[in-house]
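For reproducibility, we list the full input for the adenosine-5'-diphosphate complex.
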Amino acid sequence: ATMPPLLSAMANAGRHGVLIKSAVVMERLGQVDRVALDKTGTLTEGTPRVTEIRPLPGSGLDQDALLVMAAGAEHPSEHPIARAVVDAARTRELTVPDTRDFSSAPGIGVTATVDGHTVAVGAPARLLSGTGSACAEAAAFAETLEGDGRTAVLVQRDGTPVGVLGIADRLRPDATAAVAALTALTGSAPMLLTGDNPRAAARVAEEVGISDVRASLLPRDKVTAVREETTTGRRVLVIGDGVNDAPALAAAHTGIAMGRAGSDLALETADAVIVRDELATVPAAVNLSRAARRLVA
Ligand code: ADP
Ligand code: MG
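The corresponding predicted structure, in tokenized form, follows.
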């Protein structure tokens, strides 16, 4: 029996490693003419590692104590940075303490009660508001790390900065090729949308060949970036992995989530899922959609 073109394209996309959730999505995917990519976990592998542990001199903490405190707060989080912090503590054979009152703010960080202290872990630019010497010291540490392309993560105890962690992630091996293929297919320059700091964002963008970079974005800022394109008549393909990407995936013409390390919310919200986390499967799926549309028409 011959399958209808859209169904056979869906089956084909599935064989390439892209799970398309409906025939409507399969049909629409080929219309996209602008691409917006998330950085952490999408262009990068999303398995970052802690590369620096810097307690502030006045904190009274050594490296292990700072790491344990951060890991305690991060333990319940599914964010790649949280997993990196907990893994680093376990690698040093440190015991991660129990956590109470955990809450997370997508694009900002986490907070929890650890050993009787309120501990916050997250983006320095979002958490550092004070003017004290600890804030100035922490900001200087963060800036040095970000200058090296790291994601700097601030650790606060009861509202006071106590240290900074440096986090590094690897680019996906096929990221550059996928960006080039999507640029050619859509005839427009892709954008990078990230909650990470501008320096780390610029480093990754340069490596993969993206010149339109928007950094330090909250989840709603990613939506705004997508909507701005939509109002000019663009059909935006958003590719992301995190809870912080879910609103943008929903606002996109077509949203695609990274399947292996992607958050449950991103997987549910997206129109399609990249099963094996290979970005190069996306341009293949766009081509399948276009071919099927020609047969349908
Ligand atoms: P991206 O858009 O690149 O995927 P996110 O929006 O998930 O990044 O995170 C943006 C920034 O917020 C991170 O670079 C980090 O500084 C901070 N952040 C978010 N979640 C956490 C967390 N669980 N622990 C520490 N920092 C976090
Ligand atoms: Mg991400």
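The longest helix spans residues 281-296. The pocket of magnesium ion (ligand 2) is lined by residues 38, 40-42, 240-242, 245 (CB under 6 Å). Both points were considered when choosing residues for closer inspection.
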